Amino acid sequence: MTKPLVSVVIPAYNHGNYIVKTFESLINQTYENMELIVIDDGSSDNTLLVIQDYEQKLVDRFSKVIVKSQKNQGICKTFNNGIQLSEGKYIFICPSDDVFSENFVCKQICYLEENKDYSCSYTDGINLNSSELDIHDYSKGNVFSELFTFKSGDLRWFMLDNYLNLPTPSFIYRASIFEEIGLFDETLKFEDVDMFLRISKYNKMGCINEKLFYRRLHNTNSGRNPDIIIKGLKQIIEKYSLDPDYSEEEKHKLIHNLSKDIEILEGKYKKNQFIKTENFKDFVNNKKLYVWGTGTYAKDLLDSQSSKLEVSLFIESLPKRQTFLNKKVISSQALLQLEKDYFILIASSYKEEIVKWLDNNGFERDKDYM
Fold first, then answer.
1. For the whole model, what pTM was predicted?
2. Angle between helix 75-85 and 191-202 (nearest 10)
């Protein structure tokens, strides 16, 4: 019996350094019946050349391969272009910089075939630094399910709190869901959040609690840009404040959460707005000061108060260097082995993930970190 066709849609933009690893992980899938649609969205790097150089290997593996190049239209329009070209019963919108275990597609299709009333499914996964792709070496706190609790079934109410938490790269959809609720909203920055909210209103979503994909973290992840996040959340508020499908209670809950997230981001990322040292010393209370983060935000914060803050060491989930600003850098896992005589200052664009990791490992906000 022929297994259902899966359409893999890859929207590619400026990922020439990453896309080959993505291709390799797709070629190695145990699930056979797949077509591949790759759309280069006007990349300014060598992405299109890399795709073309690799095209024959793709043709040899997939039942059909479509490679298109277009003037830049944005991620959402590219999603929709790919969906409209697809012929599969299932659609996997595959990021052009992530990596997937060999049974990623097979396990999800088996799940969806057994659960006919589920419109889509997702899996657990792991965050990896772009420079490191050892899928056997990851530290606690980089696993999605350790940051929040996954759920299956009717997620209408659950989604009002967790619209930003789902592992977007892992979703596989029934093609019929796009016929039912429409394609991605091309007016929005957060097209995936909107899609999850729309699906969860009246459709079930399933979770496979296995780590089946690896999200690469690097400087060009647009979803990590606070300005894009803030603008996207404001668009969601505008759209859903008048949504007739939600009750007043549901709208209030969603908009309250969105507004709170915007306030946190605006307060956190406003340029040159840093912690007042006299207030911060009250929190540190003569403990050693550890800073979580080794990027621009951490450097700018310390530069603004270089004579006032004495940092003992730096923390990263997956350290890419041994030292930063002449101080030792340790992993989050190594932190757990130290005597708790320190206070952690979070200076990273991954604050939400770091806070959840700290909370899950027994740290208390304001007492142990801020």
1. 0.73
2. 50
